[in-house]
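ok so for the tutorial part 2 we go from a plain amino acid sequence to predicted structure tokens. step 1 is just haveing the sequence, like this:
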Amino acid sequence: MDGEGRGFVLHTRDGESELDIDEVRAMADSGDPDGLYALSMAYLFGWDVDEDQEKGYMYLEKAVAAGQTEAMTLMVRLFMQGEYQGIGSERAAELSITAARDGIPDAQLYAGLAYMDGISVPKDYAEAVRLFRLAANQGSSEARTNLAYMIQEGLGTKKDEAKAFALYRTAARSGNVNAMFHLAVCHEFGVGTRKDLPSAAEWYGKGAEQGDAFAMERLGFLWSEGIGDSDPDPEKAFEWFLRAAMEGVTSAMATVGRCYLDGYGTGKDAGEAAKWLKMAADNGDEEASRLLSGIRRQVLSSSSGTITDTIWFSIPQAASWASIGPIEAPLSVM
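step 2 — the prediction. this is what the tokens look like for a chain of 334 residues:
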């Protein structure tokens, strides 16, 4: 169903029909599932009517109750984006699986996530792979990224890092931010391809430009070691760590705190160090909590000198795959 300025095009099993808002409203009033879905879209997105979220959700719920699978998919998408709270994770999974049977790519993606994580259904990696592949074959770059992850890890299918790399690359080139991050990781650590830090930096940079805070943090680690023929650049490393920290990445907050302690890429500043370490500690970073306690003890026991006169805090190194921990599936769990 499309809506452009005026008029709606409804795609049904009988073909396409172009309707105006009054005709859509009449269909909805008669209980027609497609009419209910079209009217929900009109109110949710302000197509030919004033935007009204409450009415939009009311008609969306009616469309779902009437079995309209595109409406089910939209409801799940809005739920996963945190915009709609009328269902929970299990109901979202159920709706996704139902809509996936109609061949809707986004529904296949969401259903794949449900099977991957065992939401509402027993965990079934093979079924997740099947659904991700169906959606990917219809052009879903997010599904292709998830499929690549499953193949990389050998979940529900044969492990093949080279194939996973190729899938990440295709999805990244189509503009998928999650795929950009995974592709950069492959380049950084030589997963399915040769190790290539300049290419890793390139793809982390593309992701960072799109707001990926974890890509920003990885750029910080790369610049702390040097990229290609470039020497380590503490100032650039600190800049990327700070950007990631300001976006809410807990580990980056802790690293920024350590940078301020050592004067790495910035001036030494015990106050700023304590501020960032406290933020990281408040978000559950145990190492930041330990360092913060060390600062407090140092302040209490010494009236002269700086905090780091007696304690040196190293910058974390990106020397191995394990240094960034497990790479999680690209999409959040339902």
